[in-house]
């Protein structure tokens, strides 16, 4: 009975918070050690995935967990949700995103050196939609800003951590849309779509 109550408490916490919750905060609420709580969460993840009568699942991002809807039901959710204007990522923005993902933390000048063109617009778009964020400053003249990917990036691409990124021969190679795409039915970023227009640098 205690085990079931623990699951119910975890479910309540994740539902109430909405965003991802660090495992440490869940442990504090339950007054249980990390290993025990992680084991329970793993059981819950399996149960949610295998239960066809549930429309939710638990995602893990590094040391955080979040309650999300299952992607196979996204079309039904979208049919009843209010339509909002879509944010789109051009191929140029995807190029910048791939460079940041594989070279982070990375400066703006390094991104532009790899691409060979100004990337202010693309970087600003990625910051706007929450896929990239500032990670501090480089200890060098001018102290340029360092950029890295966010938890939203992991969620968008269905990754648990950055170690799940596809392997590439050269991290400085630009990965284009066909290799580094955003799922069409990703629940947590429903307003994000790919644009094939090349007018954004």
What is the count of DSSP helices, taking H or I runs of 4+ residues?
Answer: 8
Task: Count all strands and give the number.
Answer: 8
Low-confidence stretches: 176-200
Beta-strand share of residues = 15-25%
Order of strands across the biggest sheet? 1-3-2
Alpha-carbon Rg, integer: 19 Å
In whole angstroms, how far apart are the ends? 58 Å
Largest sheet: 3 strands, antiparallel
Shape type: globular
Structural class: alpha+beta
Task: State the helical fraction.
Answer: 40-55%
Element-level helix/strand string: HEHHEEHEHEHHEEHE
Mean pLDDT: 80
Write a compact overview of the structure shown.
The protein has 201 residues and is an alpha+beta fold.
What does the model show?
The chain is α+β, with helices and mostly antiparallel strands and 201 residues long. 42% of the residues lie in helices and 16% in strands. It has helices at 2-17, 23-30, 34-50, 74-80, 91-103, 108-115, 120-128, 151-156, and strands at 21-22, 56-61, 64-69, 87-89, 106-107, 132-137, 145-149, 192-194. The strands form three sheets. A three-stranded antiparallel sheet has the order 1-3-2. It has a three-stranded antiparallel sheet with strand order 5-7-6. The chain has a two-stranded parallel sheet with strand order 4-8. Helix 5 (91-103) crosses helix 7. The N and C termini lie far apart (58 Å). 18% of the residues are buried. The model is unreliable at 176-200 (pLDDT under 50).
